[in-house]
């Protein structure tokens, strides 16, 4: 079962982890290239992480600027081994606002979808920031960090570790723990798909909690609030009102209440999570006004005019996130694995014993016992398969579970039909418990154990 859970969690998790091996070294420029615009010039750089990885990146800056300029390091959102080019649009647009911008590569070694370490990613960001700050065209007293999505968890950690970072910008910054945010993300997907009933709870709550308990969801219960409370540098926090990956209104509420210093909260109407005009995979430009807002705010902050805290009105957020507490012992993956094994053994013992009896000339058992054994043996593995396949069908765009009947996927309705068949046949078989033999006792016990298990997982609920 843990292998199956791992496969499902691979489609859900966000993150990365690696061990410390060697100290960082200074980065060096490797060349100068055109950014495809006469307004900008670029230079390739490299830097070493604390565990000895060499990562690349690209510097973007105004072509005809004079004097030292503000610097801005970009911190990626989730993903393994993201290249600097994934942030090229932001880097170019921010550089046109009069900044020297570093878009770095993100680590791939030691980074997987089931493991991540925000502290290590923050350390990577600090190594890249040192490269930016040491550039001769950057004013080291005017250098800051920008973080997108997962970078909204990572960048604040980096900010708390050095006074060299003078300001922080977040886009789609999460104010809640990753597990809760991801469950809200899934809730949006199933709601857009029209999925209703107990399968909705299974997909956006129960399975996430089990995956986190099994250690398959990275940094599941990381609380960003203690880190945010330590940041006294000015903060610009931006969200799109149509963000369906991070709860924008809830995150903004937390940012406003938690940051002790100047915090400016802005929302862009009808804009998605990354503030690309039509979504990151289709758009070729940022949301109108986004780059200008960043540029104007950075000029004010680095010019000594730190704004007083302010916030746009919170957008309507149709669905509120739900806290997902850690699993009780009986909900944990070990207990669930034991129950799964017991159910399979109980349901499999009866037909094996019945086959032996028939070969010896005995009867094959009552119809209710045969139905109970069959529905249990088919239904339990089918439930596991259904969970994995349904979770695995989710992607960045949504979730597609095929045709729905009354808001329920057909596969889930088959699971429920088998569960109710198991329930009824258990009740019938249990009426003959006084005359039951050992193999029948084991079968009835399996059916009785199945009932609370199936209720917990929603198989016997509407």
Automatic annotation (TrEMBL):
EC number: 3.4.-.-
Pfam families: Peptidase_S9
GO terms for MF: hydrolase activity
PROSITE patterns documented for this protein: PRO_ENDOPEP_SER
Signal sequence bounds: 1-18
InterPro entries, A to Z: AB_hydrolase_Est10 (IPR053145), AB_hydrolase_fold (IPR029058), Pept_S9_AS (IPR002471), Peptidase_S9_cat (IPR001375)
Transmembrane segments: 333-355, 367-386, 410-429, 441-458
Keywords: Hydrolase, Membrane, Signal, Transmembrane, Transmembrane helix
Boundaries of every Peptidase S9 prolyl oligopeptidase catalytic domain copy: 90-260
First-level EC class: hydrolase
Name of this chain's protein: Alpha/beta hydrolase family protein
